[in-house]
Amino acid sequence: MNSLLVRAAALLFPDAEGHHGVLPPLLVLLTFVTGLVDAVSYLGLDRVFVANMTGNVVFLGFALAGDVQLSATASLLAVGAFVVGAWVGGRLSPRVAEPHRLFALLVAAHAVLVAAALVLDLAAGAGHVLIVLLALGMGLQNAVVGKLAVPDLNTTVLTRTLTGLAADRFGPASVRRFVSVAAMFAGALVGGLLQLRHGTAAALAPAIALLAVVALAATLSGRTRS
Q1: For each of the chain's 226 residues, which pLDDT tens digit applies?
Q2: In angstroms, rounded to a whole number, what is the distance separating the alpha carbons of residues 194 and 35?
């Protein structure tokens, strides 16, 4: 147990001069944010995910098959906006040479999109527009996290993480995977409680705060390393 805690601490509080610097704990925070935002989109916006695109493709099939509880329009909007966000992130990558700067820029853009969704929810509650804004942000996040390629911390998809956790021998990768799963679960739990008890704005507010913290930390880290 002590060994597990030591390895978890090494993941969450790494040597800033190491290969990935401060990115691992920041990616854990983004994984928590994913749980928050997907709780909002699934529980409050037409039973759709804005981060889990595998789920949306399956939901689209179910909706077209006749499930009246699912919306084909919402699933298509989420997938389309996510792809656009990922495309934009991919096009920006060659133009921003420093990875920490790119990471900070796209996470900050994600925070702005989530903030716009919160304001829109308070003003009008236009569900489909919220889906587009949130999925755009998740597409940006996925694009930059994919470029960074920090092992076992992709912030949105847990299928391979759980497979590796079960199939591989215990080691440092197992700790990273466990922390990633725990962060997603915690985000979904907190987001679900806030969404069901207090509404969309209450669930999005901590997501915005965490995204702002991640963007600021990445910016400061980039200046330190340069």
Answers
A1: 455 555 555 555 454 445 566 788 899 999 999 999 999 999 998 899 999 999 999 999 999 999 988 999 999 999 999 999 999 998 887 777 677 888 999 999 999 999 999 999 888 767 889 999 999 999 999 998 888 878 778 888 888 888 888 888 887 778 888 889 999 999 999 999 999 999 999 999 999 999 999 999 988 876 655 5
A2: 12
Q: If you classify domain 23-221 with CATH, what class do you get?
A: mainly alpha
What's the pTM? 0.88
Tokens representing 199 are 């509404």
Residue 107 has, within 13 A of its CA and on its CB side, a CA count of: 30
**Domain locations along the chain:** 23-221
Cα–Cα separations (whole angstroms), residue 94 to 26, 61, 89, 99: 22, 35, 10, 10
Place of tokens 């978890």: 8
Give the chain's length.
226
Q: Do the Cβ atoms of 83 and 121 come closer than 8 Å? A: no
Phi, psi of 89 (to 5 degrees): -60, -40
